[in-house]
Amino acid sequence: MRLILGLCVLIALGTVSCFDPPEFSDIPDIEYNSVTFKDIGTASDPDSLIILMKFRDGDGNLGLDPAEVDEPFNNKYYYRFSDGSYITYETKRTNPNYDTLPDFVKPYNCTNWEVFSNNGVVVDTLYFKINPNHYNIFVKYFVKNPDGSFKEFDWREEFTYPFCGISFDGRFPVLSKDLSQSSPLEGTIRYAMGTIGFKPLFSIKTLKLQIQIQDRGFNRSNIIETPEFTLQSIKGG
Predict the structure, then answer these.
(1) Helices first, then strands: H and E counts in the chain
(2) Count of the separate structural domains present in the chain
(3) Are residues 114 and 177 in the same domain?
(4) How far from the centroid of its chain's Cα atoms is residue 222's Cα?
(5) How far apart are CA 23 and CA 158, in angstroms?
(6) Is residue 112 scored above 90 in pLDDT?
(7) CA-based, 20 to 30 A from 7: which of 50, 62, 77, 171?
(8) Cα(190)–Cα(50) distance, rounded to whole angstroms?
């Protein structure tokens, strides 16, 4: 399923002359504001689930540049031998020292094994682990069971190869004009998640979300949780 992420950040800088800057913790803090479902109404255009949250951070080291894809903000870690060659699924099958690696079955065929193809022909299957520090905003989906409990809906694990799901974890941009100068920040983040899958998957189900952000020093904020909702109950323009 096609997933689309979008966000808008409104910030207030705490370094205005003639006023003492606010005192916030260097660990970011967020506060739930609202969740809205934007129904596009077609089968091919993605609908949007939009989260609005307030944030505060004492040293202002929030955000990642899109170009920051090298370690420690890389997307995945591919594992190699000392000679530089990659650990592959063939390694697992033939080398007893690596037989504890997961099998190529759900969900590992999407979360730990990456298939590389050339003109439709599989060339290799490499072992990897996702680097959570590639992202700075983390979203978990929960679906209500008939008994009233909630179960996490993991987008990465619900689908199988070759239609592996993509999580709604994402990035928001650098918010400070100068990262070398620590200064408090506060404002509002509008985070939009888009896919054609919302209505087919959740049309009559009750959901809730948990959201957390992370600063450049890998300090994670508190976790906020939306109230229970259905798509119909939060539909907006």
Answers:
(1) 4, 12
(2) 2
(3) no
(4) 16
(5) 43
(6) yes
(7) 77
(8) 7
CB atoms within 10 A of CB 61: 19
Beta strands 29-38 and 235-236 are parallel
Whole-model pTM over 0.85: yes
What pLDDT, in 10s, does the model give residues 135-152? 999 999 999 999 999 999
Can you point out the beta strands (E) in 169-206?
185-195
pLDDT value at 5 more than 70: no
d(CA 143, CA 149): 8
Give residue for tokens 């997933």.
3
Q: What is the C-alpha R_g of the chain?
A: 21
pLDDT by residue (tens digit) across 39-90?
987 878 899 999 999 999 999 999 999 999 999 999 999 999 999 999 999 9
Cβ atoms of 4 and 45 within 8 Å: the answer is no
- Please state whether 186 falls in left (phi above 0), alpha (psi between -120 and 50) or beta: beta
Q: Is the dihedral of CA 203, 165, 5, 150 positive or negative?
A: positive
Structure tokens that stand for 141 in this block? 């989906």
Q: CA angle at residue 91 from 86 to 93, to 5 degrees?
A: 155
Structure tokens that stand for 137 in this block: 């905003």
Write b or e for each residue in 125-135: b if 16 or more Cβ atoms lie within 10 A of its Cβ, otherwise e: bbbbeeeeebb
Calpha distance 145→137 (Å, rounded): 26
Greatest distance between any 2 Cα atoms in the chain: 69
Domain extent at residue 115: 76-130
Same domain, yes or no: 186 and 216: yes
